[in-house]
């Protein structure tokens, strides 16, 4: 199991838990606004043994582990790694882009994740642009159906700039985010989901597509307008800074 970075235990990444965070390198998406991909590209692999040794040093405080990336479901040893964490009586949160529903189904069947957070890359019509790769719709839609079967879950969308068909770059709009909310309902058959609308945070010399570094954080007014509209569809929507 490749682990490119570790974040010391905190109260933010796993709500309700004191969690250690393992970042796995590599992703099958090329989201232009991503800042994690460049960071993890040259990360040294500490391996699962190193991470488990770290957990031993903080076992008196840590109550959960977050596995994120990159995209964790690309790791061939993810399930054995999750089983090792389970053996330590720790809760497990998995962050995913939803591209591997087959593995999600195996994780669900083995009860290896207590919490799953899935990125919804805006409305389906823009997924090729927001994910940076085409042909992901079927997998992401299937993953959405699986995610709602985990004990705790969330969907989330970063209100990021998008490269448009005409070559222009602009933030996701209120109607586009409303379309994303409706898609979640249509796919899962319910509006009763925790949904987070997240702001885009620019990082100089740290985004996958350098053109996006010129953009500011998502405007507060845009986030508020999106929140107001999306609440009409998904009443458990919150803005996450």
Explain this structure to me?
- With 241 residues, the protein is an alpha/beta fold.
- The chain has a single domain (5-240), classed as Aldolase class I (TIM Barrel), CATH 3.20.20.
- The chain has helices at residues 36-41, 47-57, 78-87, 101-109, 127-131, 137-147, 174-188, 220-230, and strands at 5-10, 19-24, 64-69, 91-96, 115-119, 152-159, 161-163, 169-171, 195-199, 237-240.
- The strands form two sheets. It has an eight-stranded mixed beta sheet with strand order 1-2-3-4-5-6-9-10. It has a two-stranded antiparallel sheet with strand order 7-8.
- α7 runs parallel beside α8.
- The radius of gyration is 17 Å and the shape is globular.
- The mean pLDDT is 93.
Annotated CATH homologous superfamily:
Aldolase class I
Number of strands: 10
If strands are numbered along the chain, what order do they take across the biggest sheet? Answer: 1-2-3-4-5-6-9-10
Mean pLDDT: 93
Ranges where pLDDT stays below 50 over 5 or more residues in a row are: none
Q: What is the 3D shape? A: globular
CATH class descriptor name: Alpha Beta
CATH topology, what is it called?
A: TIM Barrel
Number of helices: 8
Assign a percent range to the helix content. 25-40%
Instruction: Give the SSE order as H and E letters.
Output: EEHHEHEHEHHEEEHEHE
Mind telling me which CATH architecture this is? Answer: Alpha-Beta Barrel
Largest sheet: number of strands, sense, barrel closure: 8 strands, mixed
How many angstroms separate the termini? 31 Å
Kindly provide the radius of gyration, computed on alpha-carbon positions and rounded to a whole number of angstroms: 17 Å
Strand-pairing-aware structural class: alpha/beta
- When the domains are counted, the total is 1
């Amino acid at each position: 199991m490749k682990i490119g970075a570790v974040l010391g235990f905190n109260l933010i990444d796993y709500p309700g838990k004191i969690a250690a965070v393992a970042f796995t390198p590599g992703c099958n998406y090329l989201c232009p606004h991503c800042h994690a991909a460049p960071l993890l590209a040259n990360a040294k692999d500490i391996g699962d043994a190193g991470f488990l040794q770290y957990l031993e040093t903080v076992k008196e405080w840590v109550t959960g582990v977050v596995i994120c990336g990159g995209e964790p479901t690309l790791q061939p040893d993810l399930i054995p790694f999750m089983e090792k964490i389970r053996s330590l009586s720790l809760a497990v949160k998995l962050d995913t882009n939803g591209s591997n529903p087959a593995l999600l189904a195996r994780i669900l069947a083995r009860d290896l994740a207590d919490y799953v957070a899935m990125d919804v890359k805006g409305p389906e019509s823009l997924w090729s642009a927001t994910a940076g790769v085409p042909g992901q719709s079927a997998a992401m839609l299937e993953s959405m159906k699986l995610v709602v079967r985990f004990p705790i879950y969330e969907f989330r969308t970063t209100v990021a700039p998008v490269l448009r068909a005409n070559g222009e770059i602009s933030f996701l709009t209120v109607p586009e985010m409303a379309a994303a909310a409706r898609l979640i309902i249509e796919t899962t058959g319910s509006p009763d989901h925790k949904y987070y609308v997240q702001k885009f945070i620019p990082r100089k010399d740290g985004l996958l597509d350098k053109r996006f570094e010129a953009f500011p954080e998502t405007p507060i007014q845009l986030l508020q307008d999106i929140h107001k509209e999306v609440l009409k569809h998904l009443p458990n929507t919150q803005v996450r800074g």
